[in-house]
Design a protein that fits this description.
The complex is a heterodimer of chains A (483) and B (560). With 483 residues, chain A is an alpha+beta fold. Helices cover 33% and strands 16% of the residues of chain A. Chain A is built from 17 helices and 19 strands. The two termini of chain A are 20 Å apart. With 560 residues, chain B is an all-alpha fold. Chain B is built from 22 helices and 3 strands. In chain B, strands 2-1-3 form a 3-stranded mixed sheet, with no helix packed on it. In chain B, helix 10 (206-224) packs across helix 11 (232-242), helix 10 packs antiparallel against helix 12 (246-260) and helix 20 crosses helix 22. The two termini of chain B are 81 Å apart. Classes of the chains: A alpha+beta (483), B mainly alpha (560). Bound molecules: adenosine-5'-triphosphate and magnesium ion. Chain B: Belongs to the SWC4 family. Chain B: Residues 1-30, 327-385, 481-560 are annotated as: Disordered. Chain B: InterPro entries: DAMP1_SANT-like, Swc4/Dmap1.
Chain lengths: 483, 560
């Protein structure tokens, strides 16, 4: 399978200006018998970020926050460079739903266009309204501009990813935008779990994707999802953030989650002591959504540096052979210190494990206000069980031997070890092998990388839905072709 | 600051004195530099800094000797695997060097044509990957064919169509086909809905789907090409498809499921059982090893010394005397060497034991278990053997010892051989080889010995009979020759041959032959009956061969 071979672009110099495909790169690709570069663009939208780039490369050139800002005047702002400015008084929104599928198509289209044109195809003049560089109110509407917009992807086939639970309507909308708005010569819609499997070098695999909005467990056979095996639940990055908020609210003294933009200066204080910081005052009103968005960044920092999954034997509340519960054991171990933006810092002991324990054990989840309690079926081990139960028995051992772990939240310390422990405990007779990219970027971009591999395969070019086919069969061609 | 200053600071010896000649050489061509450059050069000391001077000659060479840059272009290509879809994609390809433009010849059209169709449809090259597009062949059938051949009360045509469609679409990947199997609901005007019952689609297992598909495929295959005309690959496929048994598959899956769903305890138990098995196997290996060693020892070549003199009871007596004397001598020798008298009795005992072992070794391989134990220490300790034990140990009671006196059992075996002439001996050996019996018994128990003895007797009888038969054969032949010669002479005398005579002669030879045959047959029969008991002989042969088999299998096991 070609997916297992290294991406050709990994040996390619990354200096070239984005849209300029140097023949040099192609030359290398030509030595590789299975690839055939047609400068396809891979677009992998998620709840937390949009990844876009050229097929054949090893990382997406364009990585854009899915959140966007809306000013009082109704102006949209995209990209991390602009949306973190508290002075702009932006209302932060996300075009994706809580399930990680597109909810607001108009904005999603603009966001993706921004992701593509700002990094990939800006070589050509793109629509000045949507390239994020201009204030649309200053530009007079022009008939020509529409045509400009149509040519956004005029020469690039587009491969887009979607979740396994995407709706038919959404899928048809995707091809419509690609064909009508962007003028793509060819289009393909691929499941992001399948792409993640390809990214891990597998065609048959059990994909465990824990992103921002959803966690999913899906069995893949020969590059096709098994629809009956699709399991998804909200125990992902956003859920973990809620857990952290619950934790901060319940600690004594209460941990104060202050975003960076609020702090003018701070003085170091002892652990547990109240913060000594001077706060910034803003003339303009700071919308709640902006504050929550900025708090989320602090939470992600906390996740990256403090949170850990219990990865010893059993679960966090299991009592081990010596009659000591794992919780007590962790309590006896040194914790980790986290300093909030206001300078307050504290040692986090067993709490840093208990916040993530709900991923595997629903009873350990902290209650979240206004949210129903977590059920067993929503935990990752149970999703694996359900997913495997829905596939042919002959396939199950094979799937367990090819588990692919992807998504940003799987980067929490100890996640893969714990997953391995849980799976071997659940299936003591089977050989469990977990494939998880070691590099942070590869773990987060798993599905984009798989798309990059697929889009550069010579044999894939017969699959594309061409413009002519779209014109002939209409939007539902995508249902017929992209299974 | 110069390099000498640096040396000074670092307390290094002045290297200048060590190699003055070189230094001179190096410094000589150095250009005279000024300012900062000189300072830097001084720092470097004797080892000039590797700065490549800028020489314009290099530049010229680099660009002068280069071929023109390879030209690349975005070349359009299509993919013939796209079923006629005209999608044209572009990839970078090396630009082909155009041959110099054709000279404007007699007809100027050449140039014209090129200008008119620069990228004609045919000129767009095909993707090199189109050839990898292969699809499975699924059965095709018409409405009539379905009604005639493929009717099944469990399946509607709609469902069958759906199944075959999925099989094609997913290239017979059964897990996917099963996953996506969602038959369309019957159309409202079909028979079912007329009756008012719209059955929900049946839940079908992978086996159900496979069974249906294979039966359809096999039927259609036979329909298109009768099985007799199929080539072997086709026939095999047909066989496999028509013999698909969903029940077996289901049972297998059930088993696999059970194995997959083992609990931790079961897994652990299985693991421990496997360990146990491993241990048993290891132990049996060891056992086999030991057994092999034992056999090797039993098969050791007999002692070469002449033991004939000890074979009679007198000889044995003599041997005993000798040994006693030897031990006595040794004892006295020991005593004189100052061994404490307290150690005496135990020492003596050990000697006695050793004596017995000496005797044992002399008695050779024929010694069975009972011989291994030394002479019982005293009459009081002698145990009365039961009948079974006697049998096991091969104890036999004799009224009186035969004229030759007491003898070893192995004598009994080797005697009939030794007493024969060497020619006879080789003949016997040949027969034994033919019967695959080693001429030295591997397990010479009493019974085996007896059986072997009777076998030897039988062989003797057989050989005698054969000898007799051969002799008779020879005589018959001779007689016939003589007769023929006589007849020939008579015929020559009479002139031409008379047919009747010939016939008569033929009859006669026939008769003679049959006689010879009967003689031979008789001898065989006799040889069979020759042994004291026919079945015993065969038993011995059996036991010998079975022993051999056992050994062979053991060797086999050892080898692997
Ligand atoms: N090192 C880390 N440790 C823990 N969590 C992390 C880390 N890095 C990123 N995350 C979390 O991972 C999430 C983003 O993951 P990812 O990029 O896979 O999501 P996505 O694909 O955009 O979302 P979705 O799949 O739900 O549509 C965020 O919630 C972020 O907080
Ligand atoms: Mg994702």
């Amino acid at each position: 399978m070609a997916a297992s071979q290294p991406l050709t672009s990994s040996i390619q110099p990354t200096d070239a200006s984005p849209p300029c495909h140097t023949p040099r790169r192609i030359n290398i690709a030509n030595h590789c018998p299975t690839t055939d570069e047609v400068s396809a663009i891979i677009l992998d939208p998620g709840y937390s970020s949009v990844r876009a780039g050229f097929a054949g490369e090893d990382t997406p050139k364009s990585f854009v926050n899915s959140h966007y800002g809306v000013s009082d005047a109704g102006k949209f702002t995209f990209g991390d460079d602009a949306i973190h400015n508290p002075l702009a008084g932006l209302d932060i929104r996300n075009p994706m739903s809580k399930e990680g599928i597109v909810e607001d198509w108009d904005t999603a289209t603009q966001l993706w266009e921004y992701a593509i044109t700002s990094r990939l195809t800006s070589f050509k003049q793109s629509d000045p309204r949507t390239n994020g560089l201009n204030d649309p109110s200053e530009i007079a509407m022009d008939v020509e501009e529409v045509e400009e917009g149509e040519r956004t992807l005029g020469e690039h086939p587009l491969l887009m990813t979607e979740t396994a639970w995407n709706t038919t309507k959404n899928r048809e909308k995707a091809i419509e935008i690609a064909m009508e708005s962007w003028g793509c010569p060819a289009f393909w819609l691929a499941r992001n779990s399948v792409m993640a499997a390809f990214g891990g070098g597998k065609a048959t695999s059990l994909v465990i994707d824990v992103g921002a909005s959803t966690a999913s467990v899906i069995s893949i056979h020969d590059g096709l999802i098994l629809k009956k095996s699709v399991q998804k639940s909200p125990v992902a990055g956003n859920w973990l953030s809620s857990q952290l908020r619950s934790l901060f609210a319940s600690t004594e003294p209460k941990a104060n989650l202050v975003p960076h933009f609020d702090i003018a200066s701070k003085t170091p204080v002892d652990a547990g002591a109240p913060a000594q910081a001077t706060y910034r005052k803003y003339e303009n009103k700071i919308p709640d959504s902006f504050r929550a968005f900025e708090e989320e960044r602090v939470l992600t920092e906390f996740k990256e540096s403090v949170v850990q999954v219990w990865n010893g034997m059993g679960r966090l509340n299991t009592v081990n052979a010596n009659g000591v519960s794992n919780t007590d054991y962790v309590k006896s171990q040194p914790g980790r210190v986290f300093e909030f933006p206001d300078g307050a810092n504290q040692m986090w002991g067993v709490e840093r494990m208990s916040v993530a324990e709900g991923l595997f054990d629903e009873r350990a989840a902290l209650p979240i206000p206004n949210e129903p309690a977590l059920t067993k079926a929503q935990t990752i081990p149970e999703m694996v069980r359900q997913s495997l139960a829905a596939v042919d028995i002959d396939l199950r051992p094979h799937l367990l031997g090819n588990v692919v772990v992807t998504g940003g939240t799987t980067l929490i310390n100890g996640f893969t070890d714990r997953l391995h422990n849980e799976l071997t405990a659940m299936y003591p007779g089977a050989r469990v092998k977990i494939q998880a990219a070691g590099l942070t970027a590869e773990r987060r971009f798993g599905s984009w990388i798989g798309g990059s591999i697929l889009g550069s395969l010579g044999t894939f070019h017969q699959m594309w839905i061409s413009r002519k086919e779209y014109e002939e069969f209409g939007v539902n061609v995508v249902e017929k072709r992209c299974k | 600051m110069s390099s000498n200053d640096v040396r000074d600071m670092l307390d290094l010896p002045d290297s200048g004195s060590t190699r003055p000649a070189k230094k001179q050489k190096l410094t000589a061509p150095r250009p005279v530099l000024k300012g900062l450059a000189r300072e830097i050069q001084n720092l470097s000391g004797d080892n000039p800094i590797a700065i490549v001077p800028e020489v314009s000659a290099f530049k010229k060479k680099r660009y002068g000797s280069r071929k023109p840059v390879a030209k690349w272009e975005q070349k359009p290509f299509k993919n013939s695997a796209r079923d006629g879809d005209p999608l044209v994609l572009r990839h970078w390809r090396r630009k082909e060097e155009k041959p110099p433009a054709p000279p404007v010849g007699e007809d100027g059209n050449v140039e014209m044509e090129e200008a008119v169709a620069p990228i004609a449809e045919e000129m767009v090259e095909d993707s090199t990957f189109a050839k990898y597009n292969v699809r499975v062949n699924v059965p095709e059938y018409t409405e009539e064919e379905y009604n005639a051949k493929l009717q099944n009360q469990d399946w509607t045509k709609l469902e069958t169509d759906h199944l075959v469609g999925l099989a094609y679409e997913y290239d017979l990947r059964w897990p996917v086909i099963w996953d996506r199997y969602e038959p369309p609901l019957p159309a409202p005007d079909s028979a079912d809905s007329l009756l008012g019952l719209v059955l929900p689609p049946k839940i079908r297992t992978v086996e159900d789907l496979k069974a249906r598909y294979y039966s359809v495929a096999a039927t259609m295959m036979a329909e298109r090409k009768p099985p007799i005309k199929m080539n072997s690959a086709e026939f095999n496929l047909h066989e496999v498809m028509s013999n698909f048994n969903p029940a077996i598959e289901t049972a297998r899956k059930k088993f696999a499921e059970a194995a997959f769903q083992r609990t931790k305890e079961e897994a652990r138990e299985e693991e421990s059982l496997l360990l146990e098995l491993k241990r048993i196997l290891a132990r049996s290996d060891k056992l086999n090893e030991e057994r092999r060693e034992l056999y090797a020892r039993l098969e050791a070549p007999p002692s070469t010394g002449n033991i004939g003199i000890y074979s009679s009871s007198q000889g044995l007596q003599q041997l005993l005397q000798q040994l006693m004397q030897a031990s006595k001598k040794r004892k006295s020798l020991m005593g004189s060497e100052g061994i404490s008298p307290a150690a005496g009795p135990s020492q003596q005992a050990s000697f006695e034991r050793r004596d017995s072992s000496v005797r044992e070794s002399i008695s050779g391989p024929s010694g069975s278990n009972n011989n291994k134990k030394g002479p019982p220490p005293g009459p009081s300790e002698r145990r009365q053997l039961t009948e079974e034990e006697e049998k096991i140990y091969g104890v036999s009671h004799h009224e009186r010892i035969g004229a030759s006196g007491a003898a070893f059992r192995h004598e009994k075996i080797s005697k009939p051989l030794i007493s024969k002439s060497s020619v006879q001996q080789t003949k016997i050996a040949n027969v034994l080889v033919e019967l695959e019996i080693p001429n030295r018994l591997i397990m010479p128990t009493v019974e085996v010995g007896e059986a072997y003895e009777s076998l030897l007797q039988s062989i003797n009888t057989l050989l005698d009979a054969r000898k007799l038969a051969d002799k008779l054969d020879g005589e018959i032949k001779l007689a016939r020759q003589q007769k023929e010669e006589r007849e020939k002479a008579a015929r020559l005398e009479r002139g031409e041959a008379v047919e009747g005579d010939e016939v008569e002669g033929n009859n006669k030879t026939e008769k003679e032959k049959s006689v010879a045959r009967s003689v031979r047959g008789g001898s065989v029969a006799r040889s069979v009956r020759g042994g004291s008991q026919g079945h015993k002989r065969s038993a011995s042969v059996l036991s010998a061969t079975s022993e051999q088999n056992f050994q062979r299998s053991k060797e086999y096991r050892l080898r692997h």
